[in-house]
Amino acid sequence: MAAATAKIPIVDFSAMNLEDALNENGQAVKIVAEQLYRAFSTIGFVYLQNHGIPQEMVDSVFETYDQFFNLSPDVKAKYGKKKITSQNITPQNGWDAVEMERTSPNRPGDLKESFDVESFDDGNFSWPNAELPHFKSTVSSFYQSMKDLALRVLTVMAIGLENVLFQDDIGGLEVRNVDGAFIRATPMKGTVIVNIADLMQRWTADKLKSTVHRVLIPEVELKHTVPRRSLVLFVDPDHETLIECVDGSNKYPPITSGEWKKRRLIETYNYK
Known about the structure:
By secondary structure, this protein is an alpha+beta fold.
């Protein structure tokens, strides 16, 4: 049964739990599908509980990334991401320094650093295993679990792209609701946040909603000096996939997934 917290629904994903064999049939799966569609066609966000990714695995990945980000800037720079150009957009592996990303030429860079992983088979990228011997294996195991969960969500929905997010307990994520007001996506232990991305909204001719969201500094003063951490999986189709409105309309012109991604990456990084 779906509950609600701050108007972001909580969906029990037990029927599609990663710990159990995949079963696409049955009334329980239909109920989950209905709850997801209702959420994604309104606010665009859900909390999933009983998803099957152990909290111990999430905590281990957070700790691994903490160790990397605590390395000196000179060491982290050895694992920096390649410059984004119209000819070079993939694979996007590596570290981005604070203020490297921005989504508008009129705004300062984002006050965050990140380590992105797109391919574990990129022979041109050196992983920081010299400093952190278990870095690649830890991240790889978690990535596979996140990918498996995302695919199960898509199996229930039958179509799509979404983002899958684990956040720590610091908070700060806010989502614009159907009334236009921002509401808090309060961290909840044992849950993962799933939200619709822009390309999914385009693909479904606005049936599913990619909702504006933001991250603010937490109001609790004690949290002002504590890093806010999140682990996010961005789900995209293969680059050659043609994205056309599934309802047969021409609300948005066709575009390949690769061309869409290239445009967005250039927008994000070329303002620097």
